[in-house]
Write a structure and sequence with these properties.
By secondary structure, the protein is an alpha/beta fold. The protein has a single domain (about 20-195), classed as Rossmann fold, CATH 3.40.50. Helices cover about 35% and strands about 25% of the residues. Helix 2 packs across helix 3 and helix 7 (about 130-140) packs across helix 8 (about 155-165). It starts with a helix and ends in an 8-residue tail after the last strand. It binds S-adenosylmethionine. S-adenosylmethionine (SAM) binds near residues 21 and 114.
Length: about 200
Amino acid sequence: MLVKIYRNIKRNITEDGLIVSSSGFLVKSMVGKIDFSRPLRILEIGSGRGAFTREIIQRMCPQSQLDVCEIKAEYNPWIEQLMTGNPDKQVRLHNCCVTELLTEAGRYDVILSSLPLKNFEGMKDNNAFLHRVIEALRFGLRDGGIYLQYQYFRSNKADIESIFGKPMDNINFVALNILPAFVYSMTKGAAEQRA
Ligand SMILES: C[S@@+](CC[C@H](N)C(=O)[O-])C[C@H]1O[C@@H](n2cnc3c(N)ncnc32)[C@H](O)[C@@H]1O
């Protein structure tokens, strides 16, 4: 029994980059940064069991569109339940790597990511995949759109700032989460601002 719990925790950390689902405090801190007063095109990446998805669906207006990108189909039942429970909301689920989904420039007003960016560093490819992912996020965001990302230990801040060509707009610390997390907010500036 203990061995099974240990194996599950180890798998969660190495594959998904977390121990348990994000807390309500982290979810509210991050989703609270989105201005839902008008229709939005939103991309949520790495939904897992839908901690953020549930809150976004609740807050978005029926004219908004939410694309949920989760590479693992094993989480589909949680997301599909949220979709069937909210038939008035426009939600689509994509089981693929986010780099495959982000093919249209400037499509999204908001990108909210739970991607374990730190894990992408360990790929022995000189961070090529990590940088490809952040480039894809920037490409898919409209000018003025907002990219929200949580990370532990303030990791990958410099990678994001370098690819977006500007400092982070703000960073919030959320202590009540396992692990305590930093919420990054980055708005996309015009192309000429890039380093
Ligand atoms: C840290 S978990 C977050 C789960 C949930 N959003 C939360 O915060 O509780 C990261 C999720 O990202 C997914 N993921 C990892 N790499 C991905 C990729 N390249 N494209 C899309 N999803 C990915 C994992 O399968 C995992 O469900």
